[in-house]
């Protein structure tokens, strides 16, 4: 074997090794990029799901608060529209609130007492909607506004 043949072999094996290493690095790069894309997509999907749930929780909480407030303020001389709205809200709540919480809410409006009132219902709904994020808020810590509150 002469020097030219040895140079051809060395050059050929160098080119083959370089091509092989380029191919391996391209495959590795593609695999890493796809893994990152998949991880980001999964995180984005979870974020969107959480955000949608938070919006739904807020809407449901608003519905409960609106109904309790409206139902407690209904009087004999309230308009037909107010009664219609109260019924609509009540029926919407009956669709998704668990039976025990819905019944508790109805009793709290009809016959409020120390153990079952609007604020205990708010706490029950809060625990239902927020689960472990509900914390330990009590009915005594919720602001409640009415004429004469705070006067001794």
Structural category is mainly alpha
Proportion of beta-strand residues = under 5%
For the secondary structure, the number of strands is 0
Q: Helix proportion of residues, in percent?
A: over 70%
Transmembrane segments: 6-28
Keywords: Membrane, Transmembrane, Transmembrane helix
Describe this structure in words.
The protein is mainly alpha-helical. It has one domain (about 5-135). Helices cover about 75% and strands about 0% of the residues. Helix 1 crosses helix 2 (about 80-95), helix 1 (about 5-75) packs antiparallel against helix 4 and helix 3 (about 100-110) packs antiparallel against helix 4 (about 120-130). Keywords: Membrane, Transmembrane, Transmembrane helix.
Record the SSE blueprint.
Elements: H1 3-73, H2 80-96, H3 99-110, H4 118-130
What attributes does this structure have?
single chain, 152 residues, mainly alpha, rod-shaped
Brief characterization of the structure:
The chain is mainly α and 152 residues long.
């Amino acid at each position: 074997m002469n020097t030219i043949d040895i140079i051809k072999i060395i050059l050929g094996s160098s080119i083959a090794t370089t091509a092989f290493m380029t191919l391996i690095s391209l495959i590795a790069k593609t695999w890493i990029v796809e893994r990152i894309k998949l991880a980001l997509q999964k995180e984005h999907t979870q974020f969107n799901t959480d955000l949608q749930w938070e919006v739904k929780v807020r809407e449901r909480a608003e519905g409960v608060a609106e109904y309790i407030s409206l139902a407690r303020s209904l009087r004999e001389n309230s308009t037909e529209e107010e009664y219609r709205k109260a019924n609509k809200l009540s029926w919407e709540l009956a669709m998704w609130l668990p039976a025990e919480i819905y019944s508790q809410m109805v009793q709290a409006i009809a016959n409020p007492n120390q153990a079952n009132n609007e604020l205990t219902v708010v706490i029950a709904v809060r625990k239902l909607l927020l689960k472990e994020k509900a914390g330990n808020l009590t009915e005594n810590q919720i602001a409640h506004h009415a004429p004469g509150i705070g006067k001794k």
